[in-house]
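User: Teach me something about this protein's shape.
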Amino acid sequence: MSNQYPVALTLSIRVLRVVIKLNLLVGAGIMALLIVSLIAKATHHLSPNRSSPILFIGMLLIMVIGICGVLVVNFILKRLFMIVETVSTGNPFVAANAARLQAIAWALLALELAHYAVGAIAASISSAAAPLNIGWGFSLTRWLAVLLLFVLARVFDEGARMREELEGTV
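Assistant: First, the predicted structure itself:
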C-alpha cells in the first residue's frame, strides 16, 4: 500500500465495499416493490378506479429504470474499486485504469440520460388528481462530472503510455 496515504486508501476501499452492498440492497428493494406492484395488480388489489393504468405503467417503467440504474451504479463502483486497488499498489497509471475511467464516464452519461427519461415519464403521467413530483432537472455539476471523467480517462491513458515509454528506455 502507498506510504503517503495508507489510511485514506484503506478507508476508501472499505467505504466502496459498503456502498456496493448498499447499492445492491437498494436494487433489491426496488425489485421487491416492482414484484409486489405486479402481484397487487394481478390480484386486483389495485383497482382501476384508484389509479389510472397510465400511472401504473409509468411507475413500473420508473422502477425498471431504477433497477437498471442500480446495475449501472454497481458497474461504476466496481471499476472505481479496481482503480483504488491499483492506487494502493502504487501503480495507478496503467492502461486498464484509463479504460475503467472511460467506462465509468460512459456509465455516468447513461445514468444522466436515464435521469431525464425518469423525469419525462413522471411528467407525462402526472396529473392534478395524481401529481408525481420527483424533483428532476438539469444539473451542471453532473454534466461536468461526465466531462471530467472523459478528460481524466484520456489523462490516464497518456500517463500510462508515457510510463511504458519511460520503462522501455530505462
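Now, about its shape. Helices lie at 6-42, 53-88, 95-125, 140-169. Residues 6-42 form the longest helix (37 residues). If you'd like, I can walk through any region in more detail.
User: That's plenty for now, thanks!
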